[in-house]
Amino acid sequence: MTDSILHNVAEGLETNLRELIQVGSLRPGHILVIGTSTSEILGHQIGTSGTLDAAKPIYDTVQRISREFGLHVAFQCCEHLNRALVIEEELLLLAPQLEPVSVIPVPKAGGSMASYAYRQFAKPVVVETIQAHAGIDIGSTLIGMHLRRVAVPARPPVRHLGHAYVTMAFTRPKLIGGIRAVYSADTAEQLYQTAAPDADC
């Protein structure tokens, strides 16, 4: 890939990440899952022509933005590793419910993106699954299995990175309670202040 294409990929990804962080109200400590087909970025069928050259600008951009906003990142492996994820050990220690697995991603079994991330992380760990607060999918790698419920699609400002189609989503808590339930803090406070002393369900 030419340097100009790689630059455009990094620039477009940064635009999308900043949009997702804003619309998803992501906060420090939240988890962001990244699924990437470097083959699709090149215009080839997923899993056929991966390249570490495309993985580097994606990794660098994701890490820079995630550090800026205090996010934890999980890079999804390919289907040969059952879409396991590469994370920093720090996140594993913060979330003991995560289950580590014994494998080292390589380009032909794990994918170029995950194998590159594994070699860049300070203390990489591979986990079987995760419940992320948001995610970006570059090239239809199917990250939905690693998002918390309920996933809310977000429209990316940059629809393609290279040749790869981009989708992204953030998550929100389930809305429960039926017709009388309140979901706004302001409305809840108003109802609380105006409730009759003997009000009851």
Describe the protein's topology.
Elements: H1 3-23, E1 31-36, H2 38-41, H3 52-69, E2 72-76, E3 85-88, H4 89-94, E4 100-101, H5 112-120, E5 124-127, E6 134-138, E7 151-154, E8 160-161, E9 164-171, H6 185-194
Parallel strand pairs: 1-2, 1-6
Antiparallel strand pairs: 2-3, 3-5, 4-5, 6-9, 7-9, 8-9
Descriptive notes:
- By secondary structure, the protein is α+β, with helices and mostly antiparallel strands.
- Helix content is 34%, strand content 20%.
- It has six helices and nine strands; from the N terminus they run H-E-H-H-E-E-H-E-H-E-E-E-E-E-H.
- It has helices spanning 3-23, 38-41, 52-69, 89-94, 112-120, 185-194; strands spanning 31-36, 72-76, 85-88, 100-101, 124-127, 134-138, 151-154, 160-161, 164-171.
- Strands 1, 2, 3, 4, 5, 6, 7, 8 and 9 form a nine-stranded mixed sheet that branches.
- Helix 3 crosses helix 5 (112-120).
- The longest helix is centred in the N-terminal third of the chain and has 21 residues, at 3-23.
